[in-house]
Amino acid sequence: MAKVSRITELKGVGPKLAEQLEQKLQIRTLTDLFFHLPFRYEDRSRITPIGMVQPMRPAVIQGEVRGASVLFGKRRSLLVKVQDHTGLVNLRFYHFNAAQKNQFRTGAMVRCYGEPRRGASGLELYHPEYSIIDEGLDADLEPSLTPVYPATDGISQQRLRLLHEQALTLLAADQVELTDLLPPQWLQQWRLPTLKDALLFLHNPPRDTRLELMESGQHPAQRRLILEELLAHQLSLHKLRAQVQADAAPAIHSAKQLQQALLANLPFTPTNAQSRVVAEIEQDLQQPYPMLRLVQGDVGSGKTLVAALAACDALEAGHQVALMAPTEILAEQHFNNLSGWFNPLGVQVGWLAGKVKGKARTQALADIAAGSAQLVVGTHALFQDEVHFARLGLVIIDEQHRFGVHQRLALREKGAHRNLAPHQLIMTATPIPRTLAMSAYADLDTSVIDELPPGRSPITTVAISDQRRHEVIERVNRACARPEQGGENAQAYWVCTLIEESEALQCQAAENTAQELTAALPHLRVGLVHGRMKAAEKADVMARFKAHELDLLVATTVIEVGVDVPNASLMIIENPERLGLAQLHQLRGRVGRGAAKSHCVLLYKSPLSFTSKQRLQVLRDSQDGFYIAEQDLAIRGPGELLGTRQTGLQMLRVADLQRDGELLPQVRDMAQQLWTQHPHTVEPLIQRWLGDAERFASV
Ligand code: ADP
Ligand code: MG
C-alpha cells in the first residue's frame, strides 16, 4: 500500500488550508506535522474534587451552581458559586451577557476547565471553559492528556488537534512515510524509543502520564526528540566547519622576525599562556585550509598581543590581515594601539569604519584593494561588498559574541585571491562554561589564555545599598580629587544600567546622573558617554578620559567591552542586580588595569532578592571569569550567557539548554559517530530540525 506523506492527503485539507499550513507553520508533509509538537499539555482526563484544587494548577471541576450574582466593583463582573461535596469555588467572568447569567441557575450542574487563582473571594477560576451538564447525561472526559500546539491566525488549536488525530491514526497503522534517522543500535544503547513511538506518545499521552514528568522533559519520548534536536544543531555546526575548511587557505610558515621586532619594542614579555596560545595558532596557520580558532581570554588577559603576534606571521608571509571589532570605540582603540606597535616596524595600518566617508573612504578602499594597507582595522564595515582585499590571509574578530555565524561564512569570500580563503581567529572575553562551549562553538577549535599578566592588583568588590548613595559619591570625590585637595588623583567610571527600558530612557538616565554628579562634585571634571551619542562624540569623550582630562566618566553599558584606561581604579555600577554576572565581570574588568589598588562598588537597589544576593556574592568572591560564568549558568541559564542570536541555539524547539544541558557531552559523542559512521543521515537531520542551512545561517 502506498504510504501517505503529503499533508493534502489528509481529509479536509484543501488547497487553501494547505497553503496556510505551509506559509504560517512551515507544514508541508505529515512529518512536518508530527514535528509541530505540543508545547504543553492540559489534563482534562479527570475531575478534581473542588476541595483539592490548587492555585495555578489548571483542573477540571464539576459541581452544582449555588448562586450567580453580578458584582459592581472596579469592573462589573459575574460571580458564580460552584460546590461539590468537598468544597466551594468561584467562577468569575468580566465579559458576559444576560443569557450566560441565566444559564447558571441555582441547582444546575456545571463542568469547568480553568486555572484557579487567588482572588477577592478565595480561589477563583477566571473565564473558565464550561458546559452545563444536562440531568442524567454524563459528558465524556478526555481519554488522554490534551496537547496544546503553537497555533496561529486562521489555524486554530482545534483544527490542529483534528489534523493530528487523523495523522496519528495513519502513523499507528504504519501508513505514513516517516524515517527514523537515528541508527537502530542507538535505541538500545541509549534506551530510546523509536521515532514512531515517541511521536505517538507526545501527541497523545495516556491519561495516567504524570504532568510533572512531562514538564521537566524527563519522559523517554521527550528525551529521544531532545537528543535528536541537539544533535541536529551540533551537526549543523560540524557542517559549517566542514564547509569553511573545504576551501584552501595559504599555509603560513613564519621566520618570526616581525614578532621579534615587535616584542623588542614592548616594555613587557608575553605570559606563558599568551605564548602557548600563539603556538596553537601557528600550528593552524601552517595548514593549507582555513584555521577556525576561538581564543577565550578573560578581560585583561592580553588578547590584543596574541592577535598582533598572529598577525606578524601572516604579514611576514606577505598577506594582509583584517582585524574587526564590534564597535567604533573599540575598533579605534585597536587602531591606535596597533599603529603604535606596527608603524615603527614599517607595516602600514589601515582604518575603515562606517564614519570614514568621502575621499578618506575612497582612499582607504583603494589601499586595501592594492594591498598597501597591510593590517586593516575596522568595524562591520570591513564586511561590506565594496571592500576588496588584494591578498587577505588572516581575519581576526575581537569579541565574537557580537558576530553571527553567517558573518563567519561571509568571510570566506573576502579572501578569494588565487581562490584562497583567509584563516579565522576569533577572540572573546566572555568565558563560556565547557559544556555550553561544546554546543555553541562546535565549529571552532578553542584556546584559552588562562593567566593574567603579572603586576595586576586584585579588585576589591563591595555591594552597597542605594540608600547610602551619598557615601559612595563622597568616595568618588576622595578617589578622584587632586592630591592638593586631599584626593588620590585617580579616575573612576560610573555605570548606569536600566536594561529593560528603552535605549532612549537609558541614555536619559545617564544624562540625569551626569548632571547630579556634576553638581555634587564641583571639583571634578565629569564626562558622559552613551549609545545615542554620535560615534565621533563618543570617541572624543573616551580620548579625553584616557588622557586624564576627565576624572569621572558616567556611562551606559557601551563601555562594557575592551576600553583600556589603566589609571581608572574605581568603578561604580548602578543597579547591578539587573545585569548578568558575565556582563558585570566584563564591566568590572575596566578597572584593575594599572598598578594602583582598584575597587568596584555594586550600588544596588534595596531590598535585594535572594537570588540577586547570591549572584552579587559570586562577584565579590571571585575575579575568575570562568568560575563566574559557571555560576551564572547555574543561577540564570544559558540564554543570558550566550547573548542572543549568535548560535541558533535560541531557536530550540523541544530542547532547553538549561534543563537539558547535561545531555550535551552525549550529544557531542553522538554527533561524532553519526558524522563518521552514518554520514547519509546528517543532512536529513539538519533539514528536519533547522530547515535549510540558509534559514539557520541568517539568524
Ligand atoms: P584583553 O584581553 O582584555 O583584550 P588587552 O589586550 O587589552 O586585554 O590587554 C590589557 C592590558 O595588558 C594592555 O594594557 C596590554 O598592553 C597589557 N598586556 C598585555 N600582555 C601583557 C604582558 N604579557 N605583560 C604585561 N602587560 C601586558
Ligand atoms: Mg580586548
UniProtKB/TrEMBL annotation:
Q: Which GO terms describe its molecular function?
A: 3'-5' DNA helicase activity; ATP binding; DNA binding; hydrolase activity
Its catalytic activity?
ATP + H2O = ADP + phosphate + H(+); Couples ATP hydrolysis with the unwinding of duplex DNA by translocating in the 3'-5' direction
ATP-binding among keywords: yes
Tell me the superkingdom of the source.
Bacteria
Print the keywords alphabetically.
ATP-binding, DNA damage, DNA recombination, DNA repair, DNA-binding, Helicase, Hydrolase, Isomerase, Nucleotide-binding
A Pfam entry, by short name? RecG_dom3_C
- The catalytic activity of this protein is classed by the Enzyme Commission as 5.6.2.4
Report domain Helicase ATP-binding positions.
284-449
Its BP terms in the Gene Ontology are:
DNA recombination; DNA repair
The Helicase C-terminal domain extends over 488-634
Q: What InterPro entries does this protein's entry cite?
A: ATP-dep_DNA_helicase_RecG, DEAD/DEAH_box_helicase_dom, Helicase_ATP-bd, Helicase_C-like, NA-bd_OB-fold, P-loop_NTPase, RecG/Mfd, RecG_dom3_C
User: Which NCBIfam families did the record assign?
Assistant: PRK10917.1-1, PRK10917.1-3, PRK10917.1-4, PRK10917.2-2, recG
What family does the database annotate?
A: Belongs to the helicase family. RecG subfamily.
What job does this protein perform?
Plays a critical role in recombination and DNA repair. Helps process Holliday junction intermediates to mature products by catalyzing branch migration. Has replication fork regression activity, unwinds stalled or blocked replication forks to make a HJ that can be resolved. Has a DNA unwinding activity characteristic of a DNA helicase with 3'-5' polarity.
What is this protein's record name? ATP-dependent DNA helicase RecG
Source organism per UniProt:
Venatoribacter cucullus
Q: Which gene encodes it?
A: recG
